[in-house]
Amino acid sequence: MEGKNNFEVIRQPEIKSSYYERKDRPARELLVQAVSFCEEKKQALDLGAGDLAESKFLLENGFTHVTAVDKSPQSKKIGEELNISGLDFENESFNNFEFAKNKYNLINAQFSLPFYDGENFSDFMKKIIDSLKPNGIFTGHLFGIKDDHYWGKDSNPKVSYHTKEEVVAMFQDLEKLEFRETEEDGKLRSGEPKHWHVFSFIVKKKD
Question: How far apart are CA 13 and CA 10, in angstroms?
Fold first, then answer.
């Protein structure tokens, strides 16, 4: 995993209030690594874009068009202020996003997938994978079943958790370029302790 500090960024709804404060942070290392596997850099999709640090990184590193999806008004404000050519910001939940088939060279979902609150997670993942072009890259994180279900005394989001076998099955038809399981004690941004169990992945859609 990219380090303990990455496990301190997730809390709902506290994280939404910190998007603007964190908008100038560097992109996460998992995405940086994923981009190095891209054979073509045209269309990218950033799900749960948050502070748009990853969207900005993609545009600054060769992608001609990035669609960033996040329902937060603060994310929308950041997108408007960035005013970067090639950025298309969709101010909606990625639960409702219309995934076009075979469109994206890269799909990024850094710590956002577990907060999908639709009815069928497997169907949602299939939509994501189907929207990749052949040789397209998909990167992100999923929470394991040993992850502490506590997200702060003022927060109770719907969060999905998966066994390693379930995660492996999700990507059975894809080439695994990076797959790491990390379990460690950490904390929320509030300082409250939390046990993390996270799967980090970079996978490639076969040609």
Answer: 9
- Those residues whose C-beta lies under 8 Å from the C-beta of residue 53, and which sit 6 or more positions away, are 22, 23, 24, 25, 26, 27, 28
In this prediction, residue 18 has a pLDDT band, given cuts at 50, 70 and 90, of low
Which pTM value belongs to this model? 0.88
Burial of 101 (0-12, 13-18, 19+ CB in 10 A): exposed
Count of CA atoms in the C-beta half-sphere (13 A) of 61: 19
pLDDT band at 164 (very low <50, low <70, confident <90, very high): very high
Handedness of CA 37, 41, 42, 48 (dihedral sign): positive
Cα angle: 132, vertex 138, 144; to 5 degrees = 135
Give the chain's domains with CATH numbers: 28-205 (3.40.50.150)
